[in-house]
Amino acid sequence: MAPPPPSLCYRELRVASLGTLFFLTPLDAAGDVAGPALSVELAHGVAGLAAFEAPAGLGAPPTTAWAVLGCARLISGLALALVTGAEQVAVVRGHPVFRATKVEVHAPPAAHPDDARYVALLRRGLDPSRAGRGLFFSYGADLTLTSQAAAKRDANAPTTLHARADPAFWWNKALAEPLLTSEAEAAYVAPFIIPFIAGHVSSFGPVPLAGGGAPATLTMTLIARRATSRPGVRHWRRGVDGGGAVANAVETEQIASIAVLRPDGAPTARPCVASFVQARGSIPLLWSQAPHLKYKPTTRVAPPSLGAAAFTKHFDALTSRYGDVVAVNLANAHGSEGALGDAYAAAVAALPILPGGAVRYVGFDFHAVCGATRYDRLESLWEEVGGDVAAHSYFYAPGDGAARPVPREQTGVVRTNCIDCLDRTNVVQGWLARRALGAALTDARGGSPDEPLAVASPAAEAAFKGAWADHGDDVSRQYAGTGALKSGFTRTGKRGLAGLLDDGAKSLARYYLNNFRDGGKQDALDYTTGAYAPSKDRPSPFASQPSPALALAAVALSLALAVSGARSALTGGVHGVRGLLRAVAAPLVAAAGILQAVRRNGKKLVNKPQLLPEAAAPW
Hints:
The structure is a single chain. By secondary structure, the chain is α+β, with helices and mostly antiparallel strands. Helix content is 36%, strand content 21%. Strands 6, 7, 8, 9, 10, 11, 12, 13, 16, 17, 18 and 19 form a twelve-stranded mixed β-sheet that branches. Strands 4-3-2-1-5 form a five-stranded antiparallel β-sheet, with no helix packed on it. Strands 14-15 form a two-stranded antiparallel sheet. Strand 1 and strand 2 (21-27) form a beta hairpin.
């Protein structure tokens, strides 16, 4: 049987099993077999083309799957991960894009004491409701590539999705590798291998546009690609590692498809496409903020001499990918954030000349300038970076009836960070994207780039705000565990009391997750992405961890007793000073003492990662 067209992947798989032997048979739209089956023997860790068909009537009843995420290596055998639920969220370059809604992991009986722990980490790392939130795939579009990179791809480049995927954003690359072991079978196995991205994909439109330009429709897609290097969670992954990779590194691409309308009101056959790319990532110095139960963990910064090489590697890779870089730092200008900012500015000033492009540092104390509600003052940031953004431009492919018939390329990028690279960063990235969209609409339909989107289309204005707010929430949940702070402004354009209260609730939730849950989530991400590989030749990384649960329960009980004693005193049930001391003061003193003991032992009581604990402070 000849291999299928190399540019497409199988859209449906029949999954049959016999013990620990799994058969994945591709099906076409009619339900007929579309190619040779893939077999995975979990216990012995062998994968390849099936030598025979799955025996009918034996084993578990067959099921179906949308896609293969891949196989994770255990100490003994493999664990197979399949997408068994998905929903379409967008169309990119003519191909539907899907979000995984259900992932099943199949594993052999544990032959090693640690294998059950690794399987549990894999399930957590791929669970769409937990650490696997935001996994996206397409059968025909390579989601790891920007529109500009896809358009510039060499005609002789590989045609299979996985062969042309950008490894920087191919989230399941480590899981796919056990399936790519035979060159002889490569053409037949390739349609099973789908590069997933982690992050965000959403789309809206088409919505009609009126206003000053030519009548048109707008369809907008927003894609966030989370980098596979230095994956992790808020306080356990900060800064840069020795290879130049930074924590919470995300590439965001806004794709606008603008179809100019013909005189009869119908859209032209070939729309204009404009793509604007931005980057975010942790301050690229060697620094850490390991949790220890305090609300703001202590910031540790390595001496500049230790981080200079990693800093240079980071910007060398960034300029090689994007060209010129404007590094916008939104952190506070004072305190520990200010010290990081000063070190960041000094490191940029000391950078050698990089072959890929220039790097310019812009410090902008978001909180000092904008406060809690005055986000209109971001205009002063535009005075700093507007010229660079205009010079960098954006990718633009003119369509039928375009006001500007000449293409554009994006030649640089704005790299934005705050401390978490979430909340302040989300606000500024959405604000810059709005400017880029206005310029693209002018290229496509004429008119003024300064015309508010709400004038051209109130529906487009509302959808734009919602898309960027959802994008910020998804990126934030993956790194910090909650939706983004300040998302109320991104969603509504207003900053009020409800938004401030929402931010307070999210901050408390982050405190709990970052201190008591994120160690296990960090392990799940390290294992799923291949940052950590199990080995029988080293000691087990797993050990029991102390928990503050009992101590905190004692605090809650003491406070409850104090409240009960106070109520009794108000109703006459407690008499005299001794009674008050015994019923109210004693429980409060006990609670305070327990909390003080917990605080002193904070480093021991937080939930810590166990697979790569040294990566939290890689120096």
